[in-house]
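Priority: medium. Attachment 1 of 2:
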């Protein structure tokens, strides 16, 4: 079963084709990072407008890429669609205007191509990047499948760490999961983005902090790990404030000094040390809870999803502390993409009916709370 996935929940316009939930045959991700960079974060209205411009060309490119793997170079529209059995689209959570573009496009295509439509939860989708058997070599156009690869086994403990979410979820099976805990304030990726701004590092903050941290000393500064009443809950806003206070102290400036002017007073060594020290504690915050959950639930596998799963410090801390191998998707499948949406749709289709393309609505505040058996 070949599913076309469509993803537009934030600032990536993405389309992909995945076969039987595991075999990646195409993936196109058009990032708007360069557009939003000058504003230091995603501007929702600009994101929506940009999705409108790109969504149809991105879908067409994904269909072409999937088709060309059969060895043919050009094809008519009907041919491009001939192998597609269903459409999957992110309907939440995310930015209202961005979600609308993807969902309205998917609804229209499902009706006009007479294909079943699956509505996908973006956050759950991040976990399914780990169900795709694909290795990227060099660039996005060379996928290869590993013959000895096995999908993650259930029960599966999933750590979802992205720009909008930080959650620990225990999956008994596909579609049968329990939310163990989540952030009570900022998401971990949001903390990376905000701390990067304080340090004067470019957006998006995660990769730029990771890069600066490579040259820094992770033990240069002591930052706190928040103590939470919920056993599996996290908090990152205190950590972000602790970095801000440390920068104010280093620069010898009062609390009311404009925070966006502080980074001009930092030298590179201090900036790199701050990035490394923050990154170590941000990762430790989620790693500690993951280890406690692992000991309590003894899952058969542990998987990480979301943009922050690309972080090497997080990966290495988990590797050191967990007694089993961790499931990691390739970095390009950790950040937002449509392959994970198409993969989840395949497994969702085994236990749920498609949605009505005439009535599917977006759910910007959709949560991961269903099936708490
Ligand atoms: O999953 P994603 O692409 O979008 C959301 O669903 O939010 O995650 C984006 C987040 C951003 O906050 C970005 O700074 C962070 O993932 N990120 C990273 C890294 N790459 C992306 N954070 C830490 N280290 C990275 N290497
Ligand atoms: Zn995401």
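Attachment 2 of 2:
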């Amino acid at each position: 079963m070949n599913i076309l996935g469509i993803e537009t929940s934030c600032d990536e316009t993405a389309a992909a084709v995945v076969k039987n939930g595991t075999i990646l045959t195409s993936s196109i991700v058009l990032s708007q990072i360069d557009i939003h960079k000058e504003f230091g974060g995603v501007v929702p209205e600009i994101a929506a407008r940009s999705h409108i411009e790109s969504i149809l060309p991105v879908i067409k490119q994904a269909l072409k890429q999937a088709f060309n793997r059969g060895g043919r170079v050009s094809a008519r529209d009907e041919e491009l669609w001939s192998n597609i059995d269903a459409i999957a689209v992110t309907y939440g959570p995310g930015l209202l205007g961005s979600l609308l573009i993807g969902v309205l496009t998917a609804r229209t295509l499902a009706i006009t191509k007479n294909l079943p439509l699956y509505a996908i939860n973006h956050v759950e989708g991040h976990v399914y990047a780990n169900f795709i058997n694909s290795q990227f070599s060099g660039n996005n156009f060379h996928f290869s499948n590993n013959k000895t690869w096995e999908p993650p086994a259930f029960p599966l403990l999933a750590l979802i760490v992205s720009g909008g979410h930080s959650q620990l979820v225990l999956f008994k099976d596909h579609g049968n999961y329990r939310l163990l805990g989540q952030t009570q304030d900022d998401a971990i990726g949001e903390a990376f983005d905000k701390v990067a701004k304080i340090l004067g590092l470019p957006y998006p903050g995660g990769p730029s902090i990771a890069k600066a941290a490579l040259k820094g000393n992770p033990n240069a500064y002591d930052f706190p790990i928040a103590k939470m009443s919920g056993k599996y809950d996290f908090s990152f806003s205190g950590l972000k404030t602790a970095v801000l206070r440390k920068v104010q102290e280093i620069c010898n400036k009062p609390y009311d000094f404009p925070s966006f002017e502080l980074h001009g007073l930092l030298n590179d060594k201090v900036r790199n040390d701050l990035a490394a020290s923050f990154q170590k504690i941000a990762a430790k915050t989620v790693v500690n809870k993951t280890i406690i959950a692992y000991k309590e639930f003894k899952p058969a596998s542990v998987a990480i999803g979301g943009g922050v799963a690309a972080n090497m410090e997080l990966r290495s801390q988990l590797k050191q502390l967990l007694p089993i191998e961790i499931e990691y998707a390739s970095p390009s499948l950790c950040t937002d993409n449509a392959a994970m949406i198409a993969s989840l749709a395949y497994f969702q289709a085994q236990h749920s009916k498609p949605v009505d393309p005439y009535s599917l609505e977006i759910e910007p505040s959709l949560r991961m709370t269903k099936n708490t058996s």
